[in-house]
């Protein structure tokens, strides 16, 4: 069978690598891919942008693709699955209607409220309906969110009502373009964050291995928010009891609710959660796709054939399959370019990839491109070095051995990925 992966980041490299590993898969195409996918056995890059829906449909038809898996949110939100389905092409992901869960935070909040799923109290405003007096009356801190897609940048934690007012006005004034036309203002929730990712087929749900990412740029969870500087799987914060609670209070009502609302959800569904001190799993956001970098360590642990799981989901038969996981831990360290996340320097030559290839674990590429025989940096997050090990500490050692094997000018990475899991793994100190 032939598989098409849409996207060009680390998540898509991991998806392509995983699908290519299946014996029944003859070839994986990646649109547009990166230097890592270009060099992967059985994988071929095609120069089609992930947002060009018409070109993607043509590609799938001309290449007789049997299964397409969408990596990033943008094509899902603009309706890539609807475009494929209209041509009878199998494409794993939610419809445009269901993808509004990520495409519009205003929609998601209204959905959560309607279906009684725990989430922060909030109000949604446009510049016309904005109620500054209401904002001033709220207790700080407040969280101000651009409703539309803003590449993870459209969230401001305001420590005063005045700061919240300023953040909302900046969003209305176009700071995040059309994404800020509607603004959600919500209460700040204390607790520990966790991500929970499942596959859904409209009715049934298959939970994937748990994972946790690190959003801040610098060690000790300091510095600006990023797309994610590392992740590990499993995430010990999600205990079996919490797992059951998230399924019961968040995932199952969400899938039932989407179905009841006439937009059954097929695809990966990612719930970003804040676990309150009393254990309540509050939904911070939904993503309609896999996380990046959570996918890289997660897929390193997946022992099952991902294409079989996706096909079962597309047939509405997720209840007939199960996913097997390597019981070892996997941990991924993102290596970013100089200046990330603000002013990214690109075009630097990456060395040491051959040395790294001889070590255990795997380096997934994100912002890279081939130039002759050289691999150059071409984006903010450049590589993700993933180690496996008996426990988080061993996985961490292997991941950092990989990261230390590569080099380019200005490369940066965190040195403490997995610190929360490690503090749970170690016996308590007195
Ligand atoms: P989001 O894109 O909505 O997940 O928000 C990005 C990040 O902002 C989250 O990962 C949290 O760290 C933080 N955040 C968002 N909403 C809240 C909230 N209501 N209370 C506390 N932190 C939040």
Describe the structure.
- The structure is a single chain.
- 31% of the residues lie in helices and 26% in strands.
- The protein has 430 residues and is an alpha+beta fold.
- β7 (142-146) and β8 form a beta hairpin.
- α1 (10-20) packs parallel to α11 (295-301).
- It is globular and about 60 Å long.
- Bound molecules: adenosine monophosphate.
- Adenosine monophosphate (AMP) binds at residues 120, 143, 145, 155, 186, 188-189, 193, 215, 272, 274, 284-285.
Defining key terms:
alpha+beta; 15 helices; five-stranded antiparallel β-sheet; five-stranded parallel β-sheet; binds adenosine monophosphate; 430 residues
How is this structure best summarized?
The chain is an alpha+beta fold and 430 residues long. The protein has 15 helices and 22 strands.
Overall form: globular
Please tally the helical runs, counting DSSP H or I stretches of 4 or more residues: 15
Order of adjacent strands in the largest pleated sheet = 3-2-1-4-5
Largest sheet: 5 strands, parallel
Q: What ligand molecules are bound, each kind once?
A: adenosine monophosphate
> What's the N-to-C terminus distance?
56 Å
Q: Which secondary-structure class do the elements indicate?
A: alpha+beta
- Residue share in helix: 25-40%
**Low-pLDDT segments, ≥5 res:** none
Fraction in beta strands: 25-35%
Total number of strands = 22
> Residue-averaged pLDDT, rounded?
96
């Amino acid at each position: 069978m032939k598989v098409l992966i849409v996207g060009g980041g680390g998540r898509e490299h991991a998806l392509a690598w995983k699908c290519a590993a299946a014996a029944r898969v003859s070839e994986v195409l990646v649109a547009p891919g990166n230097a890592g996918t270009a060099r992967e056995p059985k994988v071929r890059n095609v120069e089609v942008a992930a947002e060009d829906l018409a070109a993607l449909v043509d590609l799938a038809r001309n290449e007789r693709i049997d299964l397409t898996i969408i990596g990033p949110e943008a094509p899902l939100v603009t309706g890539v699955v609807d475009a494929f389905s209209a041509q009878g092409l199998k494409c794993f992901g939610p419809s445009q209607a269901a993808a509004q869960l990520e495409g519009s935070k205003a929609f998601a909040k209204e959905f959560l409220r309607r279906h009684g799923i725990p989430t922060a109290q909030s109000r949604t405003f446009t510049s016309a309906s904005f109620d500054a007096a209401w904002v001033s009356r709220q207790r700080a801190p407040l969280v101000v969110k651009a409703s539309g897609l803003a590449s993870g940048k459209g969230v401001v934690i305001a420590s005063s009502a005045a700061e919240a007012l300023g953040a909302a006005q900046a969003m209305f004034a176009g700071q995040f373009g059309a994404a800020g036309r509607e603004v959600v203002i919500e209460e700040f929730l204390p607790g520990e964050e966790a991500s929970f990712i499942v596959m859904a087929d409209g009715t049934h749900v298959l939970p994937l291995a748990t994972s946790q990412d690190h959003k801040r740029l610098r060690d000790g969870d300091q510095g600006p928010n990023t797309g994610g500087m590392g992740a590990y799987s499993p995430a010990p914060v999600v205990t079996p009891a919490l797992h059951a609670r998230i399924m019961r209070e968040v995932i199952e009502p969400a899938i039932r609710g989407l179905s009841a609302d006439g937009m059954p959800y097929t695809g990966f569904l990612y719930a970003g959660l804040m676990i309150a001190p009393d254990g309540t799993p509050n939904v911070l956001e939904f993503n309609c796709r896999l996380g990046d970098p959570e996918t890289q360590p997660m897929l390193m642990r997946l022992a099952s054939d991902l294409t079989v799981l996706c096909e079962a989901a597309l047939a509405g038969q997720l209840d007939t399959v199960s996913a097997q996981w390597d019981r070892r831990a996997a941990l991924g360290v993102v290596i970013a370019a100089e200046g990330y996340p603000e002013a990214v320097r690109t075009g630097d030559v990456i060395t040491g990839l051959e040395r790294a290839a001889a070590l255990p674990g795997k380096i997934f590429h994100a912002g890279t491109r081939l130039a002759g025989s050289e691999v150059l940096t071409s984006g903010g997050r450049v590589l993700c070095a993933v180690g496996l090990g008996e426990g988080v500490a061993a996985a961490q050692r292997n991941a950092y051995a990989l990261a230390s094997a590569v080099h380019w000018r200005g490369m940066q990475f965190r040195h403490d990925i997995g610190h929360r899991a490690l503090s749970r793994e170690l016996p308590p100190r007195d």
